[in-house]
Amino acid sequence: MAWKIVKHLFLSLLAVFFVSACHVNNDIKEETKAQTASLNTIQLISRSLSKREINRNEAALYKTYAIFDREKLPEKYKSPVPQKDATLVIRQLKRDFDSLDEDTREKIRPYLFRKKGGK
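Below the sequence we write its predicted structure tokens.
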């Protein structure tokens, strides 16, 4: 008899814990959505890089597309929040250019470095 009561109490506590954990998880998801909604495109890309969802080369390519060719940018990074100024991002891309892999450099070179003669 005592075993049944202990078992019932244990299962009840487990159920309460599970329901509480689900509520906390949902609250965190809602908070994350709200935070994401307030980020601009460059911030979304930087956040994905810091979470290791993308690598440095992808981040550089996406930042370049965010500034110069938004059509090529993956949908998940197309934020409605405006980027106020891209000057620092462009400087960073140029500074880090030589450390990127060859494929990434070839893709972003035309956006960052204009040919002499203005074209």
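The first helix runs from residue 2 to 37.
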